[in-house]
Amino acid sequence: MSTTKPGSAQAVAIVTGAVAGIGRAVARRLAREGLAVACVDLQDAAPTVAAVAADGGVAAAFRCDVRDAAQVAATVAAIAAWKSPIRNLVNCAAPFDPTIPLIETPLERWQIVLDVCLTGTFLMCKQVVPEMLKGGSGAIVNISSNMGHVGGAGRTPYCTAKSGLIGFGRALALELAQKNVRVNSVSPGGVLTERVITRHGSAEAATRNMIPTHPMGRIAAPEEIAEAVWFLSSDASSFTTGTDLLVDGGYCAI
Ligand SMILES: NC(=O)c1ccc[n+]([C@@H]2O[C@H](COP(=O)([O-])OP(=O)(O)OC[C@H]3O[C@@H](n4cnc5c(N)ncnc54)[C@H](O)[C@@H]3O)[C@@H](O)[C@H]2O)c1
């Protein structure tokens, strides 16, 4: 069991990077299934909490830098005091990474991408897994990327972090395989969010530039990624652990 059935006690799903984009769509999707969603972000997640409430769901905002071990521990303790059991964790936070050749990439830029994506996921799992074991079940979904499967010129930190998340998920899945906690990842292709709008300069440019690399002839809406996250978070994927699900419109099939 990794989800709340209607009518049962309200279990908690933690979503990091929940302020906008994919994180917000995931928070709304999980809340629609009856989970109380803890929206964790460096920024104030009040807009996501309001969106969930407008849908008729339950959510709360927790401000936290997932790179900071003390903040993560305090945040997970605060979430457990808010509601329990914690059944789901979606590690979605990532910093913006500009496209820069490796020889021009400052060490700080390399460090922040690895720290948020990898160390942040490690720290969240380290605090949340004991809560899942206490509650008897859990499902973790890490948000990787098509860039975790293929290279992207000028994206060495991001490609390293995102492929690292897939390895991290496999290892942790094996550790927890007989403890009723599943660990998987979702690898989106291009999704229209602030991240890609910033990279390409506008929504129109992002869409135009990314269409040629996506065989389906379009990029995704955040809600399409949220569906895959829900699948891996729910009992619909009860025999699935240690895997990665590409949701990339065929990007990696070429
Ligand atoms: N948009 C895409 O095309 C795309 C494609 C593949 C993978 N992804 C991945 O999906 C996830 C969400 O992407 P998005 O496009 O919605 O991004 P986004 O930039 O809109 O959201 C990222 C969120 O992470 C938060 N964050 C950053 N650093 C943090 C920290 N230290 N602690 C806590 N929160 C922090 C930000 O405040 C932001 O709310 C990311 O992991 C991204 O790498 C996105």
Q: Low-confidence parts lasting 5 or more residues at pLDDT below 50?
A: 1-8
**Strand order in the largest sheet:** 3-2-1-4-5-6-7
Structural class: alpha/beta
- The succession of helices and strands, N to C, reads EHEHEHEHEHEHHHE
Average pLDDT, all residues: 96
Report the portion of residues in β strands.
15-25%
Under the CATH scheme, the architecture is 3-Layer(aba) Sandwich
| Approximate helicity band | 40-55%
Kindly identify the CATH topology: Rossmann fold
| Attached small molecules | nicotinamide-adenine-dinucleotide
Q: Biggest sheet, in brief?
A: 7 strands, parallel
Q: Radius of gyration, rounded?
A: 17 Å
Distinct helical segment count: 8
CATH superfamily: NAD(P)-binding Rossmann-like Domain
Distance N to C terminus: 36 Å
In short:
The protein contains eight helices and seven strands. By secondary structure, the protein is of the alpha/beta class.
